[in-house]
């Protein structure tokens, strides 16, 4: 008999499961920059797709001047982000927003954040944000709900704080990056690392395994549990087992779990 389903059927007011916050900067008609917090987005390849409300100034700016920056704040900047949660760059404020928003032309000042010139696009980046994209709009598609649009943009330049970059590479160090997460209207830091996918270019190979491989040896994960793992070290010729390593070191256990999966 299958287990009975113990989930509740509910009607949540939003479906914001948990996405990094970004600050989108666009150019206003008068040549000043707008800055708006948002979280709806995904990225694939060099394309970033933003979900933006159609009554905001940002999407209006992008329809007329298709350049933007997308700056990702770290968790530490949540208060700066929140200072933008009740302001719009749109004047007059649209009726639907009138109860909760007021017009603010000086968004950077309001947030306590600093504009820094971009290399390839007109809108500035946010200096305090450790990760910043410059992008050019490729297409704006109306949503099935007229209240939002999908803005597909090509990322043309990426700026990263040096502390986020693996030295000597173009890889972002996931362990150094703490995006601000927006989940059901609350802000979170991203929490501790659990593991990684096999495709990761920054995952650590346990030093003892790397050493064994450098001697030409092979290995096989013998057993992996929640808090410990055992790996067989084998000869390269014929795969005969030479010894075993059992470890409860978290990186070793996570590596073994990835390799065994
Ligand atoms: C944390 C956070 C996340 C938000 N996420 C979105 C979003 O994904 N899309 C969106 O259009 N608005 C989002 N908003 C609301 C916008 O900031 C709001 O629509 C604002 O009017 C945009 O500014 P603008 O009118 O100057 O463009 C979010 C606000 C906050 C504080």
UniProtKB/TrEMBL annotation:
Chain ranges of the Flavin reductase like domain = 18-188
What does UniProt give as the signal peptide span? none
SUPFAM superfamilies, alphabetized: FMN-binding split barrel
- For the keyword S-adenosyl-L-methionine, the answer is no
Question: Could you tell me the superkingdom of the organism this chain comes from?
Answer: Bacteria
Q: Which GO terms describe its molecular function?
A: FMN binding; oxidoreductase activity, acting on the CH-NH group of donors, NAD or NADP as acceptor
UniProt KW keywords:
Flavoprotein
Q: Which cofactor does it need?
A: FMN
> Its family?
Belongs to the flavoredoxin family.
Write the protein's name: Flavin reductase family protein
Give the organism the record lists: Agromyces intestinalis
């Amino acid at each position: 008999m299958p287990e009975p389903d113990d989930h509740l059927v509910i009607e949540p007011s939003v479906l914001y499961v948990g996405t990094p916050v970004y600050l989108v900067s666009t150019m206003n008609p008068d040549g000043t920059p707008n800055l708006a917090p948002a979280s709806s987005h995904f990225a694939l390849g060099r394309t970033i797709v933003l979900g933006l409300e159609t009554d905001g100034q940002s999407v209006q700016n992008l329809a007329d001047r298709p350049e933007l920056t997308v700056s990702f704040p770290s968790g530490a900047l949540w208060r700066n982000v929140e200072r933008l949660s009740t302001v719009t760059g749109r004047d007059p404020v649209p009726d639907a927003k009138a109860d909760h928003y007021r017009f603010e032309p000086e968004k950077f000042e309001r947030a306590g954040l600093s504009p820094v010139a971009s290399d390839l696009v007109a809108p500035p980046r946010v200096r305090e944000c450790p990760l910043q994209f410059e992008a050019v709009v490729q297409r704006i598609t109306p949503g099935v709900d007229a209240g939002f649009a999908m803005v597909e943009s090509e990322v043309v330049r990426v700026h990263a704080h040096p502390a986020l970059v693996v030295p000597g590479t173009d890889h972002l160090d996931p362990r150094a990056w703490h995006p601000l997460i927006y989940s059901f209207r609350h802000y979170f830091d991203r929490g501790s690392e659990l593991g990684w996918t096999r495709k990761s270019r920054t995952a650590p190979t346990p030093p003892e395994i790397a050493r064994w491989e450098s001697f030409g040896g092979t290995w096989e994960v013998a057993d992996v549990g929640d808090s410990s793992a055992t790996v067989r070290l084998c000869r390269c010729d014929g795969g005969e087992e030479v010894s075993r390593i059992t470890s409860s070191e978290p990186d070793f256990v996570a590596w073994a779990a990835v390799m065994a999966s």
